[in-house]
Amino acid sequence: MTLRTMPLLFCICFAVFAADARADCARPALAHERRDAATIQRLESAWTLAYLSGDAEFEACLLTPDFTEIMSNGSINHLSEELELAEKNRGKAVTAPNISPITIHIHGDVAVAYGISSEKLIEGKPHKSSFADYYVWKNGVWHVYFARQTSFAV
After folding, report:
1. Which end of the chain is more exposed for a tag (fewer CB within 10 A), N or C?
2. What pLDDT score was predicted for residue 10?
């Protein structure tokens, strides 16, 4: 093998692996994305259901490799921790949660979706969380790169 064929071989392998990665992300919720609020709303709902049902593969398609989230307890998670948390829900029975209205702002290639989560008990006391999920539009699809949750007593 000559030095000139190495870059060609690398490009072919990269194209094959990239095509495989896209094929794994061929999910209905990720199809026909547009740069509009309706698409972000659909992705927010799909992400919630994926997390609750343990579909870490869906999350791996939606979230960027450098995804970071500030949790409601103040800890900082990255993609690997998010996927581990979702994986713990695998096999659990899930009903579609009652999602409060989400506000969406789109500015060019960036969007933010924010709102208030449903109530849950923390140490026996009712709490809600405000959240913000930040999206970036790249290569014709949205990906979440940052999220933040802030818990408060109700």
Report:
1. N
2. 40
